[in-house]
Amino acid sequence: MALSTQRASAFLSSAAQLGPQQNHDVFLSFRGVDTRNSFVSHLYHELQHRGIKTFKDDPKLERGTTISSELFNAIEESRLAIIVLSPNYASSSWCLDELTKILQCMKSKGTILPVFYNVDPADVRTQRGNFGCAFTEYEERFRKDIEKVKRWRAALTEVANLSGLDSKNECERKLIEKIVEWVWRKVHHTLKLLDSTELVGLKFVSKQVDLLLAPDADDVRFIGIWGMGGIGKTTIAKLVHDSVGIHFEVSCFLANIREVSERGNLVDLQRKLLFPILKQQITHVWDEQSGTYFIKNCLCNKKVLLILDDVNDSCQLEKLVGEKDWFGKGSIIIITTRDERLLVKHDIHISYKVEALGDDDALELFSQNAFKKKIPDEGFWELSKSFVNYARGLPLALKLLGCLVYKRDQDEWKSELEKLRKNLEPKVFDLLKLSYDGLDEMNKNIFLDVAFFHKGKDKKQVIEILDRCGLCGCIGIDALVQKSLLTNISDNIVGMHDLIQEMAFEIVHRECPEEPGRRSRLCNHDDISHVFINNTATNKIQGIALRMGRLEKADWNCEAFSRMYNLKYLEFYNVIISSSPRRLPNSLRIIKWSGYPSRFLPPGFQPNFLISLEMRDNKLVRLWDGRKDLPNLKKMDLCYSENLTATPDFTGIPKLEQLKFERCENLVEIHPSIAFLKWLKYLNLNGCKNVKSLPREVEMDSLAYFSLESCSKVKTIPEFSGQMKNLSSLNLNETSIEKLPSSIGRLVGLTSLNIRDCKNLLGLPSAICNLKSLEWLNANGCSNIDKLPESLGEMECIEWLFLGGTAIRQVPWSIVRLKNLKYLDFGGCGSQLKYQRNGFVLDSLDGLLSLTRLDLSDCGLCEGDIPGDIGCLSSLVELKLSGNNFVSLPASIRCLSKLRLFRVNMCQRLQQLPHLPSNSTLDINTDNCTSLKMLSGLLKWSRNGEIEMYTFTLRSANCFGLVNNEGCDSLTLRMLRRFLQGFVGQLKIVIPGKKIPEWFSNQSVGDSLTVELPPDSCSTWIGIAFCAVFRENQTNPADDLSEFPCFRIDCSAGGEFLARSDTFKRGNVVSDHLWVIYVSREKLKRKCGQIKVLLETYYSQYSEWSPRKYCSSVKKCGLRLVLEQDVEELNQIMMDKSIITSTTTSPSNSADTQGQQRDVDDGADPKW
Fold first, then answer.
1. CATH number of the domain at 429-510, please?
2. Which candidate in 98, 502, 571, 709 is catalytic?
3. 324-369 per-position pLDDT tens digit
4. Would you state the torsion angle of the CA atoms of residues 811, 816, 818, 820, taken in this order, to the nearest 10 degrees?
5. pTM of the predicted model, to two decimals?
6. What are the sequence ranges of the domains in the chain?
7. Which listed residue, of 23, 680, 727, 1092, carries a Cα 20 to 30 Å from 954's Cα?
């Protein structure tokens, strides 16, 4: 069966995701009372003996867990299943559930083997005999769930119809041998290459190639392995041969086919292939025709593994492997090549491209050759990484470079590294150049142009440039990809391996080693400087590209341009050239010259072939006066041209597609011809703060992006003529517009509208609701918008709606029709209403099922203003309600099953939190909720031992009422106890407090302490709990903190980061607070022995964080190594506290107290 390359690729991608889950080769399903200690025991022993990983249900399963769940996971993680159907199999509902799951997971894979052990297959198929008796009982027992019984019957019928083995036909020993052989064939057709030192970094490759091989299939498979020279194709092929060759009647590896073929010795290869069969008769193969005859006639009935290494011509395939009918069933023919087209031409549809190694694998491969071990010697790590970085994942280069420095000292390493930086190592160059030498002249030029000018660029643009230079860009790039000289183009980017690029540089250098001016392409600083300083340019130069890492001045003679008659590509970046060019070659196709030194372009410059003019950050005042015809120009980028006052006349540039004038702050005049650029797709005038007027009307049929952001003097924008259906993004942020044109409703393709901080904008026109494709609307900060169109709900595609900081007081009812809305922001809408009686009105949220983020902070919301149906937001992840005036919150918040972030900070009237969902991650902020007294029902903990919480954060800075009511110690220990009752991961709490609870047995003054962790063999410890007293560092003469507006605390253990507090603004935490952390054993990464736990205070300035050694905000810290029994101790502590509380409770409250006590006994807290 032949797979297309695309299908194979998709299959491999899927297999790569599923592969790690297959922890077992085979799953054994059986009835224990019948076969556990007899047949199954013997079968399991033989499978294990053959190295087959087998899952067998036994007492090793943990007590207290759900057995069926464990078994179901094992089924999903197994490749094969053996079902031993014995007389009492059907009497076990677990066995029947297993069987149903097995069929669900594996029936389509052909990986189930039923074994009928002392039962008649017909009894299984029709549920007679013992099987019938079992189902009679089930039908009575499961009368309310008869569908389950029907599923079990169907499963037995289905498995009985599969091809299997019957114990009545075989003795037990023979039966077990047949089962093991069946499993062996299914499992061990795979590559077993993972322990080979030659396969460093190719473990994933081996899995993918394994999937393509399928040696147990009956069809003849031709498989291609292709990639650039030195990438590891031959290594993979050899290991395939060595690993699976024993399963074939004939196995042959034909190496270096290209070289052998060039010497005219193809007959020798044919003889090598035929020798295992013909032996002495090999002399009958005297030419290629006779060799072809014998191959066809001698191998057509043989199962053959044949590997053809380094094929470069279809003729070689025709003479050696021809057609599929030359070989017997199950044969596999593997071809390695650098040219994918060769595979396609020979109808080889199953192929695998070998990619470069990742950093870790590359270092290992290099080390194996440089040190004869997997890691570098001490003192050689950084040097080794430099060599590895140079090789860029190319296995051949890594091996050669490793061998180069083997048994040499550091000085010699440094010397060789310097040489490699200057000149490509000859052996690597000679190898890589083989692919280049095989190109025709056109593709050689394309290859060199890409290496010098277009690496990493957009494929479509590169093809266009190459076409304009008289080269067939599309065909050439495809050919170079197939030759592996260009890497696989992902996201439409043209890629090239660095070593390949270095090889291209060397090829051009060899055009004229003595004189750079006589080379075709220049990109080296010294070479380019030589040409301009000494004026040695010639018409040989086709392209110049100089990209400097930092700004550099160049005292050059620009007269050199006058001799570059064939110059097509010119790029200068970060180069300040002292003189202005009086001439530029009219042959230019591309100009990229940042910092162009002249006020105008040369007057005689008429580049009719020019495609792109990019001159950012230049000295230009104008490009030219009057009209200039540039019929091929498509892109003009003059961003950051501080002196530019006017755009050119666009009349003579009809094909312009991109115009960029961003941050041209003195630009005033926009030529009216801009309105008629029919092909213009992209127009960017961001930050042109002196532009006041634009054409009254624009008709740009192709325009897709139009931005006027920060054009602060623009008061009106053009009317849009026609539909302009291609316009998808309109950005008017921070302009002075007072209204949007009514024609905005014609922009039927608009997906993004930005009007942020348009302070003069008085409203949104009703026509905006005609924008059926709109997905993003940002009107944050439009402080004069006081209402929304009633038909807002007609914008059916809207996903992101930002209306924060507006004057909106009431939300239209139709908002609930926005089924695709994901983000809704009204934050700050109540800032003008804080002291008004009638606040922000939002009637309902029902229907917003896609909403993931809701911001209603600072909306002046009072008690009852939050819709009671907020719990219907089943997708909500973030809820921000900060700065409002409510006392309580709707109980339905507990239904927000996906909630991860909850903000109610600065809600100074809020008295208690509602029940919140117990999600895997929950981050709560109640800072400055000064009236908060109870965390009532904060978490609804599970009582079945299942894990529901992974990371929990509670930040309650300055919530003094909460601590006064609950007690600091009590609150801290309650939270810890809750978390430790079967939960793992991380807990972080910030609450007011001056004293570390005594429960933290190790305490220290300052910001660090040392603790001894138990060895890994100790199974009773589950994590560490840490507590610190901190406050903002107010004054410290040793270090001025006045310039640092924020601070945070980082916790590390043994030098490795563990946890980080939230960021606190200066002035927000001026009294003592507790920061409590719990980190599970898993998070400690198996640390053992003595470790130092350190709390460092970091202060921020301009978004950068730095530690301040003498300004620690941590006063004390405490730590406890948490053991399993500590959970019970905390339960007892809490119970004691509750009993003490109950004895001091008045009689009128005794009933409530008893109810609370029952909650404590059940593992719940009375106030939570």
1. 1.10.10.10
2. 98
3. 888 888 889 999 998 888 888 888 878 888 888 888 888 988 898 8
4. 120
5. 0.63
6. 5-187, 197-353, 359-422, 429-510, 515-610, 951-1141
7. 1092
